Amino acid sequence: MNRLAFSTLPCEGLTLDQMLELAVRWGFGGMELREGAPWGVSTDMTAEARKSAFRSFERTGVRATDIASGVCLTGLDSDEAQLENLRRSVRLAHDLQAGGVRVFLGYFTERRDQVMPAIPYETLVAHIAAACDDAAPLGVPIWIETHNEFATGRSLRKLLDDVGRDNCAVIYDIIHPLEEGEQPEETVALLGAQRAHVHMKDGVPFEDPMRSSWKYTRIGEGRVPIASIVETLERTGYSGSYSLEWETKWRPELQAPGMEPETIFPAYAAKMRDILDQLGK
């Protein structure tokens, strides 16, 4: 199975069939579907549109790895609307036979000195458990991304245990635990078998130590030990996709000449094939 995938986030404005054509041309076996009309797949799709989309995946042999929803849960009253959006995304994932639905937890911040509301942890756990229970009859897992207050294996290990649902797993975004000082070997070990999906990216710390994120680079040009992380994941039994999340939409440093998907994506696929070939995968 071709385990290379990419997020459709930088493909805004293309149709699903156009994105699938690019996946085949660039040598990818999966696509991580950003949910929303500008990305060709949304929870507003009609039943017939969903059937047509699924036929397109079957025709090309490309997998829908997951629905990358923008749902973000904080344990506050605002979760009610977020949970409804999540239920809609779960139905979409079921209809497209996607592997899961991505969710975020906590608050998106740019600086470590930003003061954010406290997260009512027990309520957050209850909301995640309820979402998993809603999704279970449709056979759709809920995948929490390593992000925000729950960027590390340490924070997620406790949360996963407290949620206690078999259909709750993690998208391991390899840069965010590093931003919090947690080394990949520790993250991988703590997440264990609940590593459902991997986001690949690279970067370097900003000079300002109060920046809560790293500056993104091309794969192989930053300080993320890409090959070592893949080796650790493979050695410990990971069998999911390696999905390039190229955040052109959010990251000014990626909005530069030479950073376009048509340049970056084939290069990423070639680099990952080399890494996996060296590991005999």
Question: How would you describe the overall organization of this protein?
Answer:
- With 281 residues, the protein is of the alpha/beta class.
- It is 39% helix and 19% strand.
- The chain contains 9 helices and 10 strands.
- The chain has helices at 16-26, 47-60, 79-96, 121-135, 153-163, 175-179, 184-191, 226-235, 261-278, and strands at residues 4-7, 30-34, 63-73, 101-105, 142-145, 168-173, 195-200, 202-205, 214-217, 242-244.
- The strands form 2 sheets. The chain has an 8-stranded parallel barrel with strand order 1-2-3-4-5-6-7-10, surrounded by 4 helices. It has a two-stranded antiparallel sheet with strand order 8-9.
Low-confidence stretches: none
Number of strands: 10
Strand residues, percent: 15-25%
Q: Major sheet, described briefly?
A: 8 strands, parallel, barrel
Order of helices and strands: EHEHEHEHEHEHHEEEHEH
Mean pLDDT: 97
Features:
eight-stranded parallel beta barrel; 9 helices; two-stranded antiparallel ribbon; 281 residues; alpha/beta
Summary?
The chain contains nine helices and ten strands.
Write the layout of secondary structure elements.
Layout (H helix, E strand, L loop, with lengths): L3 E4 L8 H11 L3 E5 L12 H14 L2 E11 L5 H18 L4 E5 L15 H15 L6 E4 L7 H11 L4 E6 L1 H5 L4 H8 L3 E6 L1 E4 L8 E4 L8 H10 L6 E3 L16 H18 L3
Helix pairs in contact: 1-2, 3-4, 5-7
